[in-house]
């Protein structure tokens, strides 16, 4: 599910919200929370779009997860060495502090 929350956890959160907020304020709170999540998603999408536009050609398929240093390094190694060499190198032990 969303944010790695399972069905049991979701039900537990709903019951906790019902107890803390009460049945009269819970629907309003849920709609406001959903609105905030939508606004954050729009901001994230617009920031990613703006970043793609500012970086120029060659970055059309840029994902926010690609900006993580380890992911970026693996992607660059895959392009430079070829996929088969990187798969063989993945079995080697590398100190994570060096990455």
Automatic annotation (TrEMBL):
Name its cellular compartments: Membrane
Keywords of the record: Membrane, Protein transport, Translocation, Transmembrane, Transmembrane helix, Transport
Q: How does it sit in the bilayer?
A: Single-pass membrane protein
| Name of the protein described by the UniProt record | Unannotated protein
